[in-house]
Amino acid sequence: MSVLDLARAEIRAMQPYSSARMEASGGKVFLNANESAWAPVGDDGLGCNRYPEPQPAALIEALATLYGVRREQLLVGRGSDEAIDLLVRAFCRAGEDAILIQPPTFGMYAVCAKIQNAGVIEVGLNADATLDVDAVLAAVTPAVKLVFICTPNNPTGQLVPRESIERLAEALAGRALLIVDEAYVEFAEVASVSDLIDRYENLAVLRTLSKAWALAGARIGSLLANAEVIALLRRIMPPYPLPLPCVHAALLGLSGWGQANAREHLATIRAERTRLSKALMQLPGVREVLPSHANFLAVRFDDAGAAYQRLLAAGVLVRDVRRYPNLGDALRITIGTPAENEQMLTALKSSVMAGQNVVEGSA
Ligand SMILES: *Cc1c(COP(=O)(O)O)cnc(C)c1O
């Protein structure tokens, strides 16, 4: 049994679109793709008059090195969001198959499933935001083709231990693909599980340059997986997914200069996470700051709605996550620059005091 037996038969059988770029290489005069022969104004040598490489070799090389996988185990797309969508479309038959998620978690898994008319089976996290591996395994029906695990989880910030990932991968072999979303792993003090891909053919890992690499605007995300899974998804991916300026920005970001810059900001974010977490816990009106391994804090308030409004009035936007299960009293606060974090704390302190004044005034 191959992991591809889990995929939709018609996707495995289909003839993919063959682009001019894929069909020919090695020429000097390009009259094969109906492009303009002239660069646009302000192009500065980038070459935007030509279609980009479908999977740019230099970027694949840089990302495979960064993530410690082989080139054929990596698919690069428009954010990891694109990989989530491709996975659901390749593995879930509309109206028949399903994905399994553990709310509260990242919203795109369920959105992509709904677009494909795949089912969404939910196994809630424990009250302390940890994952119940036995409950997940017990909920896997034959319809479930994809199990998404987000670690560190958005919006709670908790980690799923490596042993749990291994247990799940092992138990799901031949039944479902296990997709570990590590969008925030750079902020955690644990290693990626990408080294396990060679051991478990049904394991896939999502990584992104959007968070720790400061490139959300460039939309560069990767799927690390078994080479057969990567090759399958390439068949249904649009021919030229990655805009040239975005590839250029990513290569700069991954250069020695870019890596040094990212490391410096990572250190700041971790230090600020510790500082903010303590400072927030001391504020009256704050019930709990969930332990976080990401670049945000989930914070429980006596009155999260009021806290949100006071922050907004001070021009500070945070994410209202009260609609998520178990987070009915919480806001998710991204770690910003030290100055921005100070503005957030100041706004919350004044709101607490204003709140007390109202109570005192009415007493
Ligand atoms: C931000 C985020 C992503 C999306 O990342 P992109 O690469 O920007 O598409 C994926 N998963 C989780 C959990 C996220 O929080």
The gist of it:
This protein is of the alpha/beta class and 363 residues long.
Supply the key terms.
single chain; 363 residues; alpha/beta; Aspartate Aminotransferase, domain 2; Aspartate Aminotransferase, domain 1; seven-stranded mixed beta sheet; 12 helices; 15% strand; disordered C terminus; binds pyridoxal-5'-phosphate
What can you see in these coordinates?
This protein is α/β, with parallel strands linked by helices and 363 residues long. It folds into two domains: 3-39 and 47-254, Aspartate Aminotransferase, domain 2 (3-Layer(aba) Sandwich), CATH 3.40.640.10; 258-362, Alpha-Beta Complex (Aspartate Aminotransferase, domain 1). The chain has twelve helices and eleven strands. It has helices at residues 9-13, 20-23, 57-67, 79-91, 108-115, 133-138, 162-172, 227-236, 244-253, 256-281, 304-313, 338-362, and strands spanning 74-78, 98-101, 119-122, 144-150, 177-181, 203-208, 220-225, 286-289, 296-301, 319-320, 330-334. It has a seven-stranded mixed β-sheet with strand order 1-7-6-5-4-2-3, sandwiched between helices. The chain has a four-stranded antiparallel β-sheet with strand order 8-9-11-10, covered by helices on one side. Helix 7 links the parallel strand 4 (144-150) and strand 5. Helix 4 crosses helix 5. The longest helix is centred in the C-terminal third of the chain and has 26 residues, at 256-281. 39% of the residues are buried. The model is unreliable at 357-363 (pLDDT under 50). The structure holds pyridoxal-5'-phosphate (PLP).
